[in-house]
Specification:
Length: 367
């Protein structure tokens, strides 16, 4: 009988050892108090949610009407637009909701968090992988599953290198496009089984049987609606529907992967290896700054469309604060970090961040 697997957790240095986070939190709290602001989203989040859902649902309705299939260029373009809508829903709506920063109402957060189904994912798995593992143990191999992309991609200096990794800076972009497709097929089932074995489902106050039943229902409904209805009503040949569906997922997967990887898999990031006693030398907050990077912080479009995820430093330090506030609290975070001689990593543009990420992939692939 195989023993029950366990997570080999790590322990960070105490936060009061350096005083950084206590000072920063006091300043951030003062900012909200002095400006009489709530840390969660305001009415602009509701309008943004409508806009993001419209980018996905309006083209989908157009597909089901049969008019899109009258021209294949329009048909495929419509599905690509749906892929863009998936990105907006995932980054700008679902993400805040699953961090309970969308609203003060927990029921609204919970229900809006289920919009991850439109991206092909499962909210329970997301909260465990993202909120618990990634946000706590950022860039620590074996704990942060965001840097565990299987054997074909090497995202950390602590991971085993294979000969084919020397080509990963070329083929990684192809694999990135498969992210949401994997979510919608096998990955959620594999993760749910793993999280149950590791005892992480208990944090969601859910049994494995109940979670699996929900997952099965969600997946069946997802495929009936997203693939079944277009096959029946779009008027396009079945193979065009399947190819367009795959194109939608590729656009979403590639976009979301790039957004996520540019935040942590960058040349400046540390990828620390715990000591034999499973300790990390820095406090949790400093660890976040040493393993997180912002990109294109002055882009109004990215701040709006990807839910402020171009300001990952602010998000990782204060995940319970809505992304609509990141632009205003960023100067406080940056000034405090520099005051404590802690680096604040930032790429000025999205393109420069992509280049830097590609360079790291190439470096990690070398012997």
């Amino acid at each position: 009988m195989n023993p029950t697997p366990k997570l080999s957790l790590v322990k960070f240095a105490p936060k009061n050892k350096d005083g950084f986070f206590d000072t920063l939190k006091e300043r951030i709290d003062s900012y909200f108090k002095e400006n009489n602001l709530d840390m969660v989203g305001d009415s602009s989040m509701k309008w943004k949610s409508v806009a993001m859902l419209a980018i996905y649902l309006v083209p989908f309705a157009f597909v089901l009407s049969g008019y899109a299939s009258m021209n294949l260029w329009i048909f495929y373009g419509t599905w690509v637009l749906m892929g863009i809508g998936m990105v907006g829903i995932g980054c700008a709506v679902m993400h805040d909701s699953n961090h309970d920063s969308y609203s003060n109402n927990k029921t609204i957060n919970k229900n809006m968090g289920k919009l991850i189904m439109l991206v092909g994912g499962y909210d329970i798995n997301w909260r465990i992988q993202h909120n618990i593992l990634h946000h706590t143990y950022t860039n620590i191999d074996g704990l942060d599953q965001d840097i565990d992309a299987g054997i074909f991609l090497r995202f950390s200096t602590t991971q085993k290198r294979y000969g084919f990794h020397k080509f990963q800076h070329w083929y990684a972009w192809l694999l990135y496009g498969m992210m949401t497709l994997l979510w919608s097929t096998s990955k959620d089932f594999q993760q749910l089984k793993e999280y149950n074995q590791l005892g992480l489902l208990r944090k969601e106050k859910m049994t494995y049987r109940y979670a699996l039943t929900r997952l099965l229902i969600y997946k069946i409904l997802y495929y009936i609606i997203t693939l079944g209805l277009p096959l029946m009503f779009s008027g396009a040949a079945w193979y065009h529907v399947v190819i367009a569906y795959l194109a939608m997922h590729y656009v979403a997967g590639l976009s979301l992967s790039c957004i996520f990887q540019l935040a942590h898999v960058m040349g400046d990031c540390e990828f620390p290896k715990p000591t034999e006693e499973r300790k990390i030398e820095n406090s949790w907050a400093i660890h976040q700054l040493l393993n997180t990077a912002n990109f294109s912080p002055n882009s109004a479009f990215l701040n709006w469309f990807i839910g402020g995820l171009n300001r990952q430093i602010e998000h990782h330090l204060f995940p319970y604060i809505s992304h609509i506030h990141y632009k205003n609290i960023a100067p406080i975070v940056k000034a405090t970090a520099l005051e404590f001689n802690i680096p604040y990593y930032e790429q000025k543009t999205f393109f420069s961040a992509l280049v830097e990420h590609g360079r790291l992939l190439k470096s990690l692939g070398k012997a």
